[in-house]
Write the structure tokens for this entry.
Amino acid sequence: MTLIKFSRPYSNGLQYGNDFFNNYMASYYNNGPLKLINSAANIFEETSHYRIELAVPGYSKSDFNIQIDKHVLTISAKKEAPSLENAKIIRNEFVQNGFERRFVLGNTVDTSKIEATYSNGILELTLGKAEHAIPKPPKTIDIN
């Protein structure tokens, strides 16, 4: 079994300060006009491809924009907020205005082999591996 050290993002010895700042900024933006929401992601590596799953319920396929530029995969969605003209917000814990996630792709991904599907609130991207990144079985060499 291999143990992998877990470190939180932005940890540089100022854990408390960063958490305080991040929580403050998230609180400000999530209660303010921008409503920044980040979707949860699962990333899997399989023999011939990588797979990314994003939990993004409440969107339709036409809301998504998926682009690759200089080995950066950007997944975003925009959705118009419902009208609340005659409603008073008592509690607002989630918003579906939009999101954006970026993933830096290494040279092991063949960007011409990327496919996306959306079903039951899960956006799934399949990223084909480059030929040199696919594991090959060991080669046996005969002795003459």
In short: The first helix runs from residue 15 to 31. Residues 85 and 92 are 15 Å apart (CA to CA).
